[in-house]
Amino acid sequence: MTGFRRDPIVGRWVIVSADEPMDVDQFYQLYSPVEKHHPEKCFFCIGRELDTPPEVYAVRPNGGEANGEGWVIRVVPNKFPALVIEGELESRPIGLYDISNGVGAHEVVIETPDHFKTLADLSFEEICEVIKAYRVRINDLQNDPRFQYILVFKNFGASAGASIEHDHSQIIALPLVPKNVKEELEGARGYFDYRERCIFCDMWRQERDEGVRVIYENNDFITFCPFSSRFPFEMWIMPKYHSSRFHEITDERAMELAKALKDALIRLKLLLHNPPYNFVVHSSPLRGTYEHYHWHIEIMPRISRVAGFEWGSGFYIVPTTPELCAERLRKVIW
Amino acid sequence: MTGFRRDPIVGRWVIVSADEPMDVDQFYQLYSPVEKHHPEKCFFCIGRELDTPPEVYAVRPNGGEANGEGWVIRVVPNKFPALVIEGELESRPIGLYDISNGVGAHEVVIETPDHFKTLADLSFEEICEVIKAYRVRINDLQNDPRFQYILVFKNFGASAGASIEHDHSQIIALPLVPKNVKEELEGARGYFDYRERCIFCDMWRQERDEGVRVIYENNDFITFCPFSSRFPFEMWIMPKYHSSRFHEITDERAMELAKALKDALIRLKLLLHNPPYNFVVHSSPLRGTYEHYHWHIEIMPRISRVAGFEWGSGFYIVPTTPELCAERLRKVIW
Questions:
Q1: Of A237, A243, A175, which Cα lies nearest the Cα of A204?
Q2: What is the structure's pLDDT at A89?
Q3: CATH at residue A306
Q4: Active-site hit among A168, A282, A292, A296
Q5: Are residues A167 and A19 in the same domain?
Q6: Are B169 and B258 contained in the same domain?
Q7: Which of A218, B15, B118, B134 suits a disulfide with A317, CB 3.0-4.6 Å?
Q8: Contacts of B94 in chain A (CB under 8 A)
Q9: Closest among B201, B315, B150 to A106, alpha carbons compared
Q10: What ipTM is given for this predicted complex?
Q11: Is the Cβ pair A321, B16 closer than 8 Å?
Q12: Mean pLDDT lowest among A38-42, A89-93, A146-150
């Protein structure tokens, strides 16, 4: 019964991923806190390669066989995927509603073989390999004409939604463009039509000029707390070169991005005692051209609760300013 | 420094509610779990009336002075408001961005004097008084021409965002119409323009015809798990009469709503071991006419985590079907 359902009022799609009826206690198990530090039970660790689905990508600096040891990064299909890779996309109406089968891909990027390391602890080179792994997988998945959008994201820590402790990120290929992405594209297009410029290019230049929200800058990237942050210590990493597609990043720029990403994550870790966080790579849809769009990464620490007010209204209440958060983050020494 | 900030890309408004710089430990205190069962410390309890701002509404069946004992419901301004009631609304640009002062009202509805009762435990008559309290306050606040929208919502339980254990709900009056409300209005208008009917009227009739997602029905209201539920056990309570404004509810219908609301909350409580939840009253903006819109209440249990995927995409992954959730909820005997 895995499939997509569309809300007829606002056009939001929901993935229903339910193969078996679950009882209420199973729900709570599903959402109970992540078990801590049990590498002997962890199937993302070295030596457990046969307990995951066969890998679709791996980095083995000293060679070695697929699905054997010796890897530093492994990408495997999700063992419990929200979507299935087989079949044609078929949509149909049910009265007012729309339903569609759950065609898509759901992969897990195991960022390190070390159960006790987090992405922030990895070296620039290691993080660069993670970025390249995203790039490889997107370039492969986009060859499938059924896919319209590929979402790369990371849930770190149980309250950010991670169900497995061993550090990993996720890639989901979708047969449609998500609503929030459409909204971003439309907003950026409105600005482009009016001012004949990319709003993101103007934004990072204004951020650099004002300076108060900037945390880090290198040749190709700038990190800042966005002016209208939804969460305390929210950070955006934005390329200073104009490009709508994350996966067209060069090797050289991937290394600059690795430096920016490590800088952001280690500041978060040190300042906020290793908080849970999510990051999402915002990139353009796979088909069509989007010269008005500009890819970037949004990092959202999960130290505040999202409550009823935010859910009902799309409004957020933040108990501090992004200027103050940026000041605190800048002061971290690492 | 309390004020509104607008995201220039998607048009989302954020309230920054930050009077004083806070250090990092204060953040964690702010968001630490609610203290349990300490009525002696609770300023929403009987006898602590002078520890809240002076009440703006109260029900005292046997009479008594304002801000004294003898009340069954009290509405007070929030002691730590996200918004301030004084001043004219002033907006200005900062480069790309927009900023505006934090004019608005933020009130708390103390639903019962009993520290150990929840809304689900109250009688139909008591819940009806809560609904009437919302109505009274909206009718008063809407006289202020600065306000465009009034949001009524409830956070129950710490992981749903409640910072005070004693049962309460909240009312926020805003000088602008929130983005999510605009989206709902636009979606409903699209359907209305095309089919010349209210999408919500068609929806509840389809739900009643299909039956599989319906939990409860009375003369004026129907409760169902929505077809594209974002959360397990999400429920919508929808009036079977067409009206865009919650606060035009009659006394008789307020009693029917009380029955529907109690039914929904007690089923949740019994089935899911008193889970945290949010509910939000979706109603039309205060100014203008919205014949294509239809007010309703959305109840969102917080037993699942909202993770990176949902945040980045507006997509939700739900591990069960609303049909199965409705079946479970229907089977609860109370």
A1: A237
A2: 81
A3: 3.30.428.10
A4: A168
A5: yes
A6: no
A7: B15
A8: 227
A9: B315
A10: 0.89
A11: yes
A12: A38-42
Number of Cβ atoms within 10 Å of the Cβ of B150:
25
Q: What is the pLDDT of residues A113-137, one digit of tens each?
A: 999 999 999 999 999 999 999 999 9
Question: In whole angstroms, how large is the CA radius of gyration of chain B?
Answer: 20
Render pLDDT for A291-317 as a digit per residue (tens, 0 to 9): 999 999 999 988 766 555 566 566 788
Chain B positions touching A271 (Cβ under 8 A) are 24
- Is A170 in the same domain as A315? no
Give me the residue from B228, B273, B304 closest to A6, CB to CB. B228
pTM: 0.92
Query: Per the structure, how many domains does chain A have?
Result: 2
In residues, how long is chain A?
Answer: 334
Mutate to test the interface with A, among B228, B281, B302, B327 (most CBs of A within 10 A): B228
> Of A82, A187, A315, which is closest to B317 when you measure between CB atoms?
A82
Distances (CA, A) of B153 to A307, A323, B222: 10, 30, 19
Interface test with A, best of B313, B328, B331 (most A CBs within 10 A): B313
Q: Do residue B86 and residue B201 come from a single domain? A: no
- Do A255 and A270 fall within a single domain? yes
Cβ–Cβ < 8 Å for B23, A329: no
Q: What is the mean pLDDT of chain B?
A: 89
B221 and B166 in a common domain: no
Copy the structure tokens of residue B65. Answer: 């002075």
